[in-house]
Write a structure and sequence with these properties.
With 123 residues, the chain is mainly beta. It contains one helix and seven strands. The longest helix has 17 residues. 16% of the residues are buried.
């Protein structure tokens, strides 16, 4: 299918936004080698969860990545922002901007308290 002038303009504009506001990251699809991508971070937060006698500090990330960089975003794939040690597990949300970018949520348990002792789960 041939692209229209509008499609080309939208893609060029999106590339410009990613180049100006994007954050470098490493994306790893389940069972594959890691690749370098650029993500737009919409929200980054921390929360504490209590369940079944344990307490976890959870880091959350809501972001997007271009489909041109990641063809198929899957549940359980991971992303790690460059310069950080936290590896986030991805839950895909949707494809937006006429199929040009993936929206996703990702979380990571960083510190877990079990029986009054803090542990650091395997990432």
């Amino acid at each position: 299918m041939q692209t229209s002038a509008f499609d080309d303009a939208a893609s060029t504009a999106l590339d410009s936004i990613y180049s100006q506001q994007g954050v470098p990251a490493t994306y790893t699809q389940s069972g594959q080698s890691p690749i370098t991508v650029t993500v737009l971070v919409e929200d980054r937060s921390r929360d504490t969860r209590d369940k079944h006698g344990s307490r976890s500090k959870v880091h959350s990330l809501r972001a997007s990545v271009r489909v041109s960089e990641v063809e198929d975003l899957g549940r359980g794939d991971t992303i790690k922002l460059t310069g950080e040690s936290i590896e986030f597990k991805i839950v895909p949300d949707s494809v937006s901007n006429d199929g040009l970018e993936w929206m996703f949520n990702a979380t990571s348990d960083v510190v877990q308290t079990v029986g009054g002792v803090q542990t650091f789960p395997n990432q």
